[in-house]
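Board notes (copied after class):
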Amino acid sequence: MIFLDLIFLKNIIFKILYIIKRNNIQEIIKGSNVFSFPCYLQKKLLQYYELKGDFARAEDILFNLAETGGNDIYEYGINFFNRLLEKANNELSKGNLPRIEVEAGLKEFTSSFKA
């Protein structure tokens, strides 16, 4: 029985390594609740989604981080929104976060720290 478990575990490890080698983070986190990840991993995912151009997902993670902790998240969030405001309208729309939502998100984000 232990032998079968080891073979099964070996196959899972090889699949994970293959996915990582292909750098397909989507496959790794598919089916996972990213909001339950530790803060440092959520920050990495936020950066990943921003670089990928999936600004709406990055913003979702940012707001979750604002609720769950991290002293540096306020400054990071302000910088995140400022980077988005520098982007063209069509790029923001492609990232599922139109400019009007970026502006509203920035206001909501800053006000959540004033309360």
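Comment from the instructor: The longest helix spans residues 2-21. Residues 29 and 45 are 10 Å apart (CA to CA).
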